[in-house]
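Appendix C: a fully annotated inverse folding record. The material below is reproduced so that readers can follow the format used throughout the book. The structure is listed first as tokens, followed by the designed sequence.
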């Protein structure tokens, strides 16, 4: 919408089109040997980075966004994809067979164990839930 408004106002040329990138993609050259943790949400990438700093966390920006971009820029890297619980099958199909890639079923397994209210959970939801549970115990 903003792109269309900027085109209409003359601030962008009519030929301009948005090209997406992965959240955190700019860090790939800085840490070429790091294993990549790939998630959908930018928030999940940030939260996961605080819990698992040994991975370089990137996000696609959504379930169907930047999938082809992820395949291209992460080609040849070790990647663990952490899809949302309701996207595990779709991400498995899209990323299956890529060398160095694996798909985590963490969210899907957590949802199955904890009930239908977790059917759309992601890694961030799980980490936040575990954090709040730990605080209640202390």
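Designed amino acids, in order:
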């Amino acid at each position: 919408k903003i792109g269309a408004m900027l085109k209409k106002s003359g601030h962008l040329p009519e030929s301009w089109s948005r090209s997406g990138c992965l959240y955190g993609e700019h860090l790939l050259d800085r840490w070429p040997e790091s294993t990549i943790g790939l998630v959908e949400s930018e928030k999940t990438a940030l939260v996961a980075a605080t819990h698992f700093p040994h991975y370089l966390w990137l996000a696609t920006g959504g379930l169907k966004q930047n999938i082809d971009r992820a395949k291209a820029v992460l080609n040849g890297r070790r990647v663990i994809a952490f899809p949302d619980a309701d996207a595990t099958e779709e991400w498995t199909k899209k990323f299956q067979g890529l060398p160095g890639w694996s798909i985590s079923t963490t969210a899907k397994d957590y949802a199955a164990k904890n009930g239908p209210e977790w059917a759309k959970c992601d890694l961030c939801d799980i980490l936040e839930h575990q954090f709040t549970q730990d605080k209640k115990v202390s």
